[in-house]
């Protein structure tokens, strides 16, 4: 059975919260890194890649590691791979 739109929105909110908690702090660099991540149907990270680099390789690498270590929630059943793919910007000042 397909997940409802409400379940999809709620799950996306949990993913966003998990990624925000994992964001590196106090790194002393500024920039924006945009990542694309895919979550496996049974939970966990299937893939992560930089969509837009900050121009700082160290900052980009820190974001990749942070996403890899994020406590991503298990998705509700019935979501398609497209519904489990997110593009997320990380802003640093």
Q: In terms of per-residue confidence, which ranges show pLDDT below 50 for 5 or more consecutive residues? A: none
Largest sheet: 3 strands, antiparallel
Written as H for each helix and E for each strand, in order along the chain, the element string is: HEEHE
What would you report as the Rg, rounded to the nearest angstrom? 14 Å
CATH topology: Fusion Protein Consisting Of Minor Coat Protein, Glycine Rich Linker, Tola, And A His Tag, Chain: A, Domain 2
Euclidean distance between termini CA atoms: 43 Å
Give me a quick take on this structure.
With 93 residues, the chain is α+β, with helices and mostly antiparallel strands. The protein has helices spanning 5-22, 57-69; strands at 31-39, 45-52, 85-92. It has a single domain, classed as Fusion Protein Consisting Of Minor Coat Protein, Glycine Rich Linker, Tola, And A His Tag, Chain: A, Domain 2, CATH 3.30.1150.10.
Description:
- This protein has two helices and three strands.
- The protein is α+β, with helices and mostly antiparallel strands and 93 residues long.
- A three-stranded antiparallel beta sheet has the order 2-1-3, with helices on one face.
Give the helices and strands, then pairings:
Layout: H1 5-22, E1 31-39, E2 45-52, H2 57-69, E3 85-92
Antiparallel strand pairs: 1-2, 1-3
